[in-house]
Hints:
Elements: E1 8-14, E2 23-27, E3 30-36, E4 42-46, E5 60-62, E6 65-67, E7 74-75, E8 81-83, E9 101-104, E10 107-112, E11 135-143, H1 147-155, H2 160-163, H3 171-175, E12 179-183, E13 188-198, H4 202-208, E14 214-223, E15 227-236, E16 251-263, E17 266-275, H5 282-314, H6 334-348
Antiparallel strand pairs: 1-10, 2-3, 3-4, 5-6, 6-7, 7-8, 9-10, 11-17, 12-13, 13-14, 14-15, 15-16, 16-17
Helix pairs in contact: 1-6
This protein binds fe (ii) ion.
Amino acid sequence: MRVFPQNQWYVAAWSREVGRDLFARTICGEQIVFYRTLDGRVVALADRCVHRRYPLSLGTLRGDDLECGYHGFTYDCSGTCIQVPGQERVPRTARVRSYRVVEQANWIWVWIGEEAKADLAAVPDNHWLDDPGWTMIGGMAPLPARYQLLVDNLLDLSHETYLHAGFIGTPEVAATPIQTEVDHAEQVLRISRHMHGVECPPFYEKSTGFSTPVDRWQDIEYRPVCSYVLHSRIAPAGVLPGDAGGDTGAVHAKILYGITPETEHSTFDFWAVARDFALGDAEVSDFFERMNQEVVQQDVDALTLLERVIADEEKADAVSEHGRVQELSIAIDAGALAGRKMIREMLASPTPTS
Ligand SMILES: [Fe+2]
């Protein structure tokens, strides 16, 4: 069975990570080398020379072409070999795979699957990361755990109350039931939690000036596997949402994650927070960055531990039947379980959704 859903866009890198230096990254088990052409376009090629499989990321850029650091096989941006040492004729089959990439609002997305099926219209929306109406901070945390654990984590925000107490967690997050809806046509999972007249978490108290009580909405839009957007709305209690764009008195944050599998047991946790208040305020940005880095690290630490627990249990002989602990799910797991089901269906589907 496949481990990574195919024919999907995955966040491969922040725009700032890819330049004129060769940049190697494994996405869904595929080794890829990224670079920019002289005019700034992003190129993604298989990171293995056709000759002796030497990583091309250890080679050298010659203009827009990539020369292998072992024997000098040279490839153009399409992955076609245009020069080999010691002979004029380049073997017709000498080409490395090239990947479709889209650079959009500070993220570089790569298509994993059949190149011919790459659907440019299906790149998930992340415009808040490059929009004059929003100020953004973000980073990437390498996570030594399978991607499903990060999906579980982000779809069940009740963990904020316990794992992120003192940051974004307050008692009401875990106490408030969620609404879950799967849109099969759009392949999107929506999970909502609307809290009214609740405690303002320190994260927002310091950055908005609001104080308890507040109305706090968390509306998740998840497009498996990679794209996660948490629409967060905070307002002094009782401020009602107006017409589109007219939500006077409320502030909004978009918490984005790009969940990108590296290998079966490791994941890139791309994270960003965009806000529509305190625009351009460096102090608030610094505060958000510090706070969010800690929140992400708390998740990374917990999931690293969980990966070890699960990987140990998967070694069938290592644990006796008595030592095995089954999962037990409750009402708040409805969202995360729906997410797992969507991913299971994508993996089982003979013609993956494109
Ligand atoms: Fe978390």
